Amino acid sequence: MTRKQRRLSMIGGAGAVLAVAAGLILYALNDEIVFFQSPSDVAEHTIPHGQRIRLGGLVKDGSIDRQGETVRFVVTDGAADLAATYTGILPDLFREGQGVVAEGSVGDDGIFHADTVLAKHDENYMPKEVVEALKERGEWQMGAENPKAKGAPAADKTSQAEPPAAPESRTN
Is 74 helix (H, G, I), strand (E, B) or coil? Predict the structure, then answer.
């Protein structure tokens, strides 16, 4: 073998080893991968019962029903609704009309059983996937309390900026 052939065989062997390692890692993590779905996606596609998904949308107005530690609510994206249930302590910002991402699975009863619920953390946050799904359906509206939503100009930051630094002169 020439030196070039040995080098190419070494590179090919290393590439094959890396491909096998990546395949094994992906196979091992297959059960841990959770895909984002909107209520419309769940309604359109047959998702196997028990498969973990991330459900995102808005909490439908008038849908929250608290029964002890168990909370029943409906997640909507404007086109479809999906009933959900969660047992545990909800985030403080969880309320009707707000964005929510819940992780869990759809049961045999057709109800989404969440084991993790995330709510928005400030007035500007909504998960990227939820925003894209709502925009796709034409249901996206920024909150009225957000001044940027009303077309208000952003605060003038030029008055707070530092003056530009003077160029350095180099002498030897």
Answer: strand
